């Protein structure tokens, strides 16, 4: 392709890293540091406490398990139960029962304070009580050990303690607001209804029912030794945590493989070398060397190093910049973490299967202490760094200076098809971890080019039967990045080292109050405009309902491309120009902000802009694993279809850049 008055820099693989501390380097720097539960989710932790008898006890053999917050007095949840050995069989006992050693237990109270419900803490307390009853009556703790070795001789019957079956009863008390919910809760915990005789009780205006239920615990035998449930009583600290992906709770399959993928309520526990994740029923999340992730079933003894395989080391990727003298304000709910297994792999939530897995390439998590969640995110350190710099640099004054510099279109002349050839060296996904360069300067995993993404989006518009000018805009809308080729000593150098404004990222209006929904709003404190009273109102420096055509947006590649198409007086319709400029303005077309400055014309354009953004997002998802188009394939698509459209809308000639 021959340029006209434009001398772009030689084609080479586009750099996607900057001079800031790379995420890979930071992982290596943090390798020896010990990040724990309180680093990941700062604030309070929980602990369990077991008590027997005491002055508050009202039942024979009464025990309590209490759940406490580390920063407050008083229990936030409790379970009260009692147990004793049945010394004399009842008259109703069957012959089989008379031949067994039976212990009787009863759950008297299971209560979780209302503000702590919804995390299955009740299930945790119930499971802890059952674990204690099993240890007390059903298991021979001397022989029944997690590290049990079948080659060692068993103790004699004389040396073993007497084992008992346990009949543990309770009454599920439900009012009309929880009808059926409490019964279902206990059924999930292994209980069953023992009688159809339900008591209905009315106390003035309050009515409820009592449903008798029971769970039977069997004494362990030498023929069927089971791995004991791990009690959290010995854990110094833990927290309930939501492990979520793009589609909500993440699915995991028990190690036995007998059940389909399930979703659980999770706890995060402090371990010696990191953190461990367990269900509220005591099953630990296990990472295998093959990359599969499962929960360890209580009857599974196939894992030799349970503690090691269940431990994940949290490593933090900060938002700080090397060349800044002072660290930036951190946002604990947004900054990124990785969870590394003992095999050197990284925990992730597969976006396709919605299941846990471990991969060689890092997957990033965002820890939110306010709602106690860990969310697997598509966000990456390079993307956060880009938006951080965007917030820091893109002020009203900055945008005005960039418009003055570039809107005289003095960089040279070239056709749009020539510009398409230049962007084949730019990655379609510059912020993906696998698009970043390693320490040797080579890409970790190849990424499709921006040219390929542009042609595929145009083809997607064609397949949907959208107007030909929409197809043309889909093909040309990313060409603003070519400024790095046309202005290598200034724009190109800045893109490589500090901030690449040509990349298409979410935009916003400058010169007025910034909406709370703005992308990466946690960095807004870095922008000096937020301290300027002129820009603090909904209209700011603009007239009410002046229309988006009369406001300033962030200076970006699409913003430059919009002005380039207008300056070169193409025959594209106004809807096409609106799509190029506003598809990144999600504050407007997604969240319906800026109603004080938009007008009726903007409302007419909104459906076109919104649909164009939908098409772009869809294509980007489908292009993730696609093969890069060759020069010959791109030229064929251009010659056979898009060249005629370019001629129709006067886009096939030399443009001033």
TrEMBL record:
As recorded in UniProt, its EC number(s) are 1.13.99.1
**Where does the record say this protein resides?**
Cytoplasm
Reaction(s) this enzyme catalyzes, per UniProt: myo-inositol + O2 = D-glucuronate + H2O + H(+)
Q: Which residues bind Fe cation?
A: 477
Per its record, what are the GO molecular function terms?
inositol oxygenase activity; iron ion binding
GO terms for biological process? inositol catabolic process
Look up the record and name the pathway of this protein.
Answer: Polyol metabolism; myo-inositol degradation into D-glucuronate; D-glucuronate from myo-inositol: step 1/1
Task: List, alphabetically, the Gene3D superfamilies matched.
Answer: 3.40.630.30
Q: Which family does the record claim for this protein?
A: Belongs to the myo-inositol oxygenase family.
Its name, as the record gives it, is Inositol oxygenase
Please give the organism.
Skeletonema marinoi
């Amino acid at each position: 392709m021959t340029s006209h008055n434009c001398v772009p820099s030689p084609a080479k693989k586009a750099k996607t890293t900057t001079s800031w501390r790379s995420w890979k380097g930071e992982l290596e720097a943090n390798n020896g540091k010990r990040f724990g539960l309180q680093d990941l989710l700062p604030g309070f932790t929980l602990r369990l406490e077991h008590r027997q008898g005491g002055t508050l006890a009202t039942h024979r053999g009464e025990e309590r398990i209490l759940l406490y917050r580390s920063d407050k007095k008083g229990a936030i949840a409790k379970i009260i139960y009692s147990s004793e050995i049945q010394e004399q069989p009842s008259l109703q006992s069957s012959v089989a029962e008379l031949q067994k050693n039976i212990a009787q237990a009863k759950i008297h109270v299971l209560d979780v304070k209302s503000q702590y419900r919804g995390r299955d803490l009740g299930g945790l307390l119930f499971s802890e009580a059952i674990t204690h009853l099993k240890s007390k009556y059903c298991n021979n703790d001397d022989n029944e050990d997690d590290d049990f070795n079948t080659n060692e001789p068993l103790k004699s019957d004389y040396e073993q303690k007497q084992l008992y079956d346990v009949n543990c009863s309770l009454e599920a008390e439900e009012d009309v607001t929880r009808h059926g919910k409490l019964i279902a809760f206990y059924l999930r915990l292994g209980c069953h209804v023992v009688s159809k005789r339900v008591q209905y009780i009315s106390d003035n205006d309050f009515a409820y029912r009592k449903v008798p239920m029971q769970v039977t615990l069997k004494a362990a035998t030498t023929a069927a030794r089971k791995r004991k449930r791990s009690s959290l009583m010995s854990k110094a600290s833990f927290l309930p945590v939501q492990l979520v992906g793009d589609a909500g709770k993440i699915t995991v399959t028990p190690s036995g493989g007998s059940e389909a993928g399930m979703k659980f309520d999770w706890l995060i526990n402090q371990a010696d070398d990191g953190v461990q994740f367990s269900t509220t029923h005591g099953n630990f999340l296990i990472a295998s060397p093959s990359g599969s992730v499962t929960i360890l079933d209580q009857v599974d003894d196939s894992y030799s190093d349970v503690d090691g395989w269940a431990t994940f080391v949290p490593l933090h990727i900060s938002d700080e910049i090397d060349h800044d003298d002072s660290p930036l304000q951190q946002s604990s709910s947004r900054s990124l973490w990785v969870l590394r297994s003992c095999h050197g792999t990284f925990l992730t939530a597969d976006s396709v299967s919605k299941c846990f897995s471990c991969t060689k390439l890092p997957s990033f998590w965002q820890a939110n202490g306010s709602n106690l969640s860990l969310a697997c995110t598509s966000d990456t350190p390079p993307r956060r760094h880009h938006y951080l710099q965007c917030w820091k640099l893109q002020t009203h004054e900055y945008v005005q200076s960039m418009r003055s510099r570039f809107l005289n279109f003095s960089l040279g002349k070239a056709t749009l098809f020539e510009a398409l050839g230049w962007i084949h060296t730019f990655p379609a996904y510059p912020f993906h971890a696998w698009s970043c360069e390693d320490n040797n300067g080579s890409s970790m995993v190849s990424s499709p080019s921006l040219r390929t993404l542009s042609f595929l989006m145009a083809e997607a518009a064609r397949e949907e039967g959208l107007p030909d000018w929409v197809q043309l805009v889909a093909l040309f809308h990313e060409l603003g990045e070519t400024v790095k080729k046309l202005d290598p000593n200034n724009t190109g150098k800045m893109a490589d080292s500090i901030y690449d404004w040509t990349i298409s990222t979410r935009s916003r209006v400058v010169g007025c109050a910034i909406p709370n929904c703005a992308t990466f709003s946690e960095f807004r404190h870095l922008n000096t405009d937020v301290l300027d009273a002129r820009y603090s109102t909904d209209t700011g420096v603009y007239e009410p309902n002046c229309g988006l055509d009369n406001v300033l947006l962030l200076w970006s590649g699409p913003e430059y491309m919009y002005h380039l198409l207008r300056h070169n007086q193409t025959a594209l319709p106004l809807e096409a120009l609106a799509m190029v400029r506003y598809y990144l303005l999600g504050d407007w077309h997604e969240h319906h902000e800026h109603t004080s400055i938009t007008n009726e014309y903007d409302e007419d354009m909104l459906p076109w802009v919104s649909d164009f953004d939908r098409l772009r997002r869809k294509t980007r998802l489908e292009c993730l694993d696609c093969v890069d188009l060759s020069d010959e394939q791109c030229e064929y698509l251009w010659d056979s279809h898009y060249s005629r459209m370019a001629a129709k809308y006067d886009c096939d000639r030399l443009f001033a850049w």
